[in-house]
Amino acid sequence: MKAVVDTNVLVFDTFQDSEFHGKATSGLDSLDGWYLPEMVFHELVWFFRSQKIPPARAGAKVQEYLTNEKASFLPSTADDVVHAATRMKAYSEYNDLLILSAAKRLGVPFFTFDEGLAKLARRSGVELFQP
Questions:
Q1: Is 128 inside a domain boundary?
Q2: 101: domain CATH number?
Q3: Rounded CA Rg of the chain
Q4: What is the widest separation between alpha-carbon atoms in the chain?
């Protein structure tokens, strides 16, 4: 099975002391492939910056995910942008809707630990990956 992977999954996978580290790691390991939307990497880098992670370490982690044999990088499409921009009720929803649009477009499950986003995925007809 392949799934679109949300930013929080990569964050939890990266940090061993995080709340969902085990579930994130085992979930990624159990998937045959990871679709990683472009926005996930922007959010991941911004998260590293907020945590004052040195840029070299952030860059190495990004490269590690991008070059993983299971990873497929997904650039945003014009349809993804329209989907997000026309459905957001607040600007803060834009990134999540852009990521969710990729799962909807590809017709694959979505792997996230964000309960609000999981509810939105279900309402949008997107299956959730449960590790």
A1: no
A2: 3.40.50.1010
A3: 14
A4: 39
Cα dihedral 113→3→85→125 (10° resolution): -90
The residue range of the domain holding 115 is 2-123
Chain segment 18-62, per-residue pLDDT in tens: 889 999 999 999 999 999 999 999 999 999 999 999 999 999 999
DSSP for 56-106, written as a single string: HHHHHHHHHHHTSTTEEEEPPPHHHHHHHHHH-SSGGGHHHHHHHHHHHHH
Residue 27 confidence (pLDDT): 97
**Domains identified in the chain, total number:** 1
Residue 128: φ, ψ to 5°: -100, 140
Whole-angstrom distance, CA of residue 9 vs CA of residue 24: 5
Assess if residue 130 is contained within a domain.
no
| Residue 40 lies inside a defined structural domain of this protein | yes
Asked if residue 51 is part of any domain, the answer here is: yes
- Token couple for 9: 């999954």
Q: Measured between alpha carbons, how far is 127 from 31 in angstroms, rounded to an integer?
A: 15
